[in-house]
Structures are given as C-alpha cells and as structure tokens.
Amino acid sequence: MGEEAPVADLRAALAADLGHTRRGPAGDEDCATLWARLRPAVAVLGVEEIDTLVAELGAAIPRIPSLDLSELRHLAARARELSEACRRLTERAED
C-alpha cells in the first residue's frame, strides 16, 4: 500500500497479511504459527533475522486495532522486511 493509503485500509491489510498469512481448507495461520511450523525444515540456513521479525510482528497482531497511523506504517515496514528476509531464505534454500 502507498503512503497515502487510508488508515482503515492499512489496518485491514496488516490484519489480513499478518493474522491470516496462510489460508487453507484446514483454517488460517497467522505469521507466527506458520513460521513455527516451517522453521524446523530451514533452521540450518540461518533464520535469526526471520525469527526476530516474526516475533515482533506476531506480538503486534492483537494490537493492530488500536495502533495509530505511525505505528501501522512502522509495522508495514517491518512486514516488508520480513517478506524480503523470506525471499533471501528461499534463495539460500535453492542454492
């Protein structure tokens, strides 16, 4: 989302992205639950950065409804950092 996105849209996007990271017939998984399930298979590739980001983002999920615009933007930036860290992990796994 762009910098000009309305607060409600940013809040909804973060809640969906972090709180419902994986959606499937067995139900939704938030980012922390999904990472806890996937982490053992990739731990040897160096996942400390992802661990830190997932812990921060997972802890923020319940607070999303009460965060102000500045906090939501910070959370969105951290979510983008997580996305990039996951991309780099995927590249390491493919090597």
Can you describe what's shown?
With 95 residues, this protein is mainly α. Helices cover 67% and strands 0% of the residues. The chain has 4 helices and no strands. The chain has helices spanning 7-19, 31-42, 48-60, 69-94. α1 runs parallel beside α4 (69-94) and α3 (48-60) packs antiparallel against α4 (69-94). It starts with 6 loop residues before the first helix and ends with a helix.
Quickly describe the structure.
α3 (48-60) runs antiparallel to α4.
Low-pLDDT runs of 5+ residues are none
Q: What would you report as the Rg, rounded to the nearest angstrom?
A: 14 Å
* Helix/strand/pairing category: mainly alpha
Distance between the termini: 32 Å
Provide mean pLDDT, rounded. 95
* Element-by-element helix/strand order: HHHH
Gross geometry: globular
Beta fraction of the residues?
Answer: under 5%
* Oligomeric description of these chains: single chain
Sheet with the most strands, sense and barrel status:
none
**Residues in helices, as a percent range:** 55-70%
| Number of DSSP-assigned strands | 0
Q: Given the structure, what is the number of helices?
A: 4
Key features of this structure:
globular, mainly alpha, 95 residues, 67% helix
List the helices and strands and how they pair.
Blueprint: H1 7-19, H2 31-42, H3 48-60, H4 69-94
Helix pairs in contact: 1-4, 3-4
